[in-house]
Each structure stands twice: as structure tokens, then as C-alpha cells.
Amino acid sequence: MRYRFVEHTADIAIEIYGENLESLLKNATLAFRDAFIFPERILGDEVRNIKIEEEEDLYEYALYDWMNELLYLFDAEHFAAIDAEVKVKRNGVLVVEGKLVGGKLSDEAVKVEPKAITLHNFKVEKEDGLKAFVVVDI
């Protein structure tokens, strides 16, 4: 299982799983996609390259910044990621490089509009790989 949606009162809560940080971030992209868009209604075929650098090797920071990058692209550039390739490097700092494949959003492609990635109960645990809990304000 890559992720699952969790019952939550007013927001969307997601448990995301991954064998390592790369797969956790890829699965976070897939969860974001399935929560907020109809992939078959995305216009065109575009690629966005993103890079995140963290001073510390903390997976929480990397996941939070990754999710916020997805939200920024969704909100500001009307771009929705359908899939992702992720590479992680550690050279004194944590460097995440991602290639997002997707396209332009149309009004018909949006299921519900995300407002913010919250820090409420936000966590990444090492448990048979990685398990994260993320709440998105809608």
C-alpha cells in the first residue's frame, strides 16, 4: 500500500508509506494527485523539476517542503503532478531532486481545492520503512 486516506473532520488526512525517502515522496505525490484532481482531465504533458535542500537530514522537513511545492505548483501555476521521479543525495545537507510529470489544471480537473499543508499531527516515523501522517486544509 502506498498511501491511504484517513477519516478527518473537515480536512483531508493521509497516511503515506515508503521503503525510503524517495518512495515516500513519490507516494506523497500520488496521494496529492488522487485527493485533489481527476488525472484524466489534466491538459497537456509537462514536466517540472524541483529541488529541495535541507540543512539537516530530517525527513519531516523534506516531506513538508515537498508537499508545499506540490501545493504551490497547483495554486500558483495551475500545474498538477500526475507522477514523480525522486532522487535523494546526502552531502552534508539533504538534497531532494524531483521530476514531476503532469499538466495544466482545468476547472473540471479539480476535485477539491487544497489550501494548506498543516503541521497538525504532521510526522514521519521509521516503521518497516517510512510512514507519514499529513493533514491538508481544504
Topology of helices and strands:
Blueprint: E1 3-6, E2 12-18, H1 21-36, E3 43-54, H2 59-76, E4 79-90, E5 94-104, E6 116-117, E7 123-126, E8 130-137
Antiparallel strand pairs: 1-2, 2-8, 3-5, 4-5, 6-8, 7-8
The fraction of residues assigned to DSSP E strands is: 35-45%
Provide the CATH architecture.
3-Layer(bab) Sandwich
Can you say what the CATH homologous superfamily is? Archease domain
Structural class of the secondary structure composition? alpha+beta
Domains (count): 1
Q: What is the CA-CA span between the terminal residues?
A: 24 Å
- Overall geometry comes to globular
Contiguous helical run count: 2
What's the story with the biggest beta sheet? 5 strands, antiparallel
Helix % is 10-25%
Q: Low-confidence segments, ≥5 residues, pLDDT <50?
A: none
CATH class: Alpha Beta
By oligomeric state, this entry counts as single chain
The strand count comes to 8
CATH topology: Archease, Possible Chaperone, Chain: A, domain 1
| Secondary-structure element string | EEHEHEEEEE
Radius of gyration: 14 Å
Please tell me the overall pLDDT: 94
